[in-house]
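Example noted here:
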Amino acid sequence: MRDTFANRRWQGQWLWTEHGAVGAPPRENPMNGSLDPERFDRRVLFRRTFELAEVPRLAPFRISSDSRHVLYVNGVELTRGPIRHGARRLYYDVGDAAAALRPGRNVIAVVVRFYGHRTAWWAPSPTTYTLGGGALVAEFGVGTDTWIATDASWRCLESDAWTPCAPQSTVSPQIPEILDGRRLDPAWNRAEFDDEHWPAATVLPASHVGSAGATRPPAEPYGALLPNPLPKPGGSIREPASFVTATPTATARPQGPLGFADVYAALAEALAEIRPTARPDRLPDAGDAPVPPSLVLAAGYRLVVADFGTMVSGTLRIDLEADPDTVLFGALTESPTPAALAAAGLFAYTARGGDGERFELGDPAGGRYLLLVVSGTGPTRIAPTVAERLRPRPQGPYFACSDPLLEEIHRVGLRTVDLTAHDAYIDCPSREQRAWTGDAVVHQSVDLVNNADWSLARHQPLLSATPRVDGLLPMAVAGDAGDADLVTIPDWSLHWVRSVHNLYRYTGDRALVARLLPTAEAVLDWFTAFLGPDGLARDVTGWVLIDWSPVQVEGTSAALNALWARALADFAEMADWLGDANRAAWARGLHDAVRAGFGIFWDHQRGGYRDHAVRDVVRPAMSEHTTAAAVCAGLVPAERADRVRDFLLDREAMFTLAPVAAHGGDADGAPTGHEVAHFAPPAVTWDVGGRVVGAQPFFRYVVHDALALLGAADTLTGLYRDWERLLATGPTAWRETWEGGTYCHGWSSTPSRDLLVYTLGVTPAEPGYAKVRVAPRPGGLDWAEGAVPTPHGQVHVRVEGTRVHVRSPVPVVLVARDGSVAEHPAGTFDAVLEAPAEPLTRGMDRGRP
């Protein structure tokens, strides 16, 4: 289908209503228009009817909009889009409408929503005099050389069924959805609907300095529209596992037009009456009664909490039968608590009355509990579901072993990444839905070894490659936190370089890596302005985060320098591969200087590296972050390897703390960790001479890489069991930190990578899996097996005792436990893995993680 439109000029023209969202030029910038502050969060309905004598075998289409659209043909939903994008980058979706067409009268119907306000997944484009404030463009092939394209023959209506709303907070910038079903005819997207009273759509010619008035793409501010590189999202239809109902004592619903405050108040007051005091994140036991497909509520004011039994992520639907004017106030939340409610996207729906009524949220939402207050004069029947809209994970790759706990940890990690894989890898589906630049390296790493579809793993680094003018990347992309005016997280850009290195190793795509290398170079060069005479970056500005742990970063941060050195080594390796010896030499020169200066952080007595130096005085605080990153960066001399490995394996000395309420805390939002003032590093309150700050789940991907490089991959099967503590509070998806945080965070899923990468030991021996490296390190497992995707097909490995069975489409480099290497041709073979002479293989494993 993509070939239908490849390099083809657009026939569709940009459309909107006669009341555009772009206003007069502001005084400070007369060469551009400006968004009309009164025309935000608008939904416009578009229709185009046509006749067909017969249905074509294929009916290709492509469509895009600013900001979001849902496309219907004869009432059948075909696609939602566009995927998230930068301010000057817009994607179009393609598809085949043939299955929805019929002989006779047909209709193409599109609802387009222009946000106006920034969200976590959308930021406004710069405006011209006409574009950048709501637009639709589409074209449909409905027969041989017969096309229907957006033009002045289309009709449109700016709907007043939705109340325009704005984001309610920075942490959770979802825009509430308040819909009056009485003002939206459910047949508006069907062919039999009469749209004669609708006005004609307005064609938007590009109007700006230098413009020739083109009405079709490409046009400022979007540039050339790009094809959506991601597969169509999908997933299961999720139904509640249980219901809890109650009759709140609150007064009846507010009179007059509803607003955000009305929705929140109704839910908060009702929820407070059923929350048990002992465990505020749990509901009263619903009993063992079977769950009905729908729930009938008596007239009046009723609270319903539907527990889906698992974290879900997608489009919330509520099928209902109700009297006219019945109102549903609701939110999909991760827990039935005020803290979760305050961070969720809220909605309200006023029923039009009758059978077959459905309310469906326009934006994706995530959570486990649907909180719903129903206010009606008669009985109401509701049937809520969530249609998951996640990037696909085809069948094929798998992992199994002799330990059911590790199998469960692997499964929950995959589910967590699935839930946080939308049109980008996001942090969590329930609160923010932001595409954080650094977080995604874990999601991507999990997908590369568990998902045969690498579309999103390839796309995410490209999506994030939007550097500021100084070369550093924003802390998040394609949304509100991607604003170049905001402070950024320098180390997140370095994790992004690692994600590019992953593409180099796994895909072997030279063109893709070459495209991203200049951005990586600019990121690395940014740090050189902070270099001191010792070759170390000091007093680095921005939000130096490292992890949700109290790692000390004031002055010269050892952890940050180690991450920079790792990125320099990654860059040099990629530049060499691309034949760019000069860039490789530049990076290696900087790396050598870091290596020479890094020795000041070495603590000989404790066998690890200290965290920071302030005015050239090395402070005593230590974390596993710094030492692990130093190993991964190649900064640890070989003679120190044994002591460093022992330091990282001394888990009794380590402790962890999570940040407070906004990004952590217990189920009720109470602080459970160090105090954070503007997220600055906390003061040291622990015994720095005997305690070591441990990594939260995110940074464990670096820790595990380090232990594997140190020859201790066999110990990882024990470390994976740390995730058992997360099963107690989040058995269906991983939480953000060991102590709390959001209930579904993809960055916590490292074991789902490492059970394939280190326990089975399957990694590329050469870029693009020209050869595969198999180095099983099963630890105490009796057996383990799995299949890992490659561009050439799956590699199957089973290890049992000292024997390994391999089936591979490419040549195999087999690394035994004693370090000996044997090469095998593509195909199937059995071999013996020598038993280790000691509990741990001594020295460092030189295979790159």
